[in-house]
Amino acid sequence: MLTLLPRASEFQLGTVTMQKKFAIVFGVGCGGVIVLVVIIGIAVVSLAPKMFEWGKQQIALEQERKELAESWQPPAQDASLEHFFPAKVANYELDSQDEDATIPEFNFDLEGRHATYKSNDSRIEVFVYRATELEKEALFRRVDDVYEGQEGGIKMKTKMGYRLYYSSSQHHQNHFWWMKGWLLVFRTDDSEDREPFVKKFLQTTSD
After folding, report:
1. pLDDT over threshold 50, residue 63
2. What is the pTM of this model?
């Protein structure tokens, strides 16, 4: 029985055809990569100035916070905390104050004082503690544990040594400031940033 073998010219033709297909596919792939690289490059170039400007603003804001913390004047050692809370801070008025300074959400169990300020529908709680640097570090770690333990939802944390900001869908908005042996905590359920209140409170109590 005779077996017909393909001629050499057919092998060559098939090889050429496969090479062309491979070249076309390879060419399309490289073209897609090049386009993607160009798009990314354009995006980086266009966003770079905005990112740089944003970075400068954040550095300036943090420097402002640090200067405020350094210039803050704490109450005298023998001062009564009953007189620590101003009757008015910006457009907020002191609504109540007591000695229940525990914050179960963060496992804060230090002795201190607690006050509530109100302005229309906005409500801000303020907690004041005497705390050494070691105590502050321990308390900040408790906040870190809460942050790490939260599953699901939105959460955000900024830690700068003397200051810690923690916001989440479960624990809302929390500002922690440690200055000159005092820890001040500001908490609110408001979604709007209440750092302006924090700054005004520090300025008012320092004055």
Report:
1. yes
2. 0.73
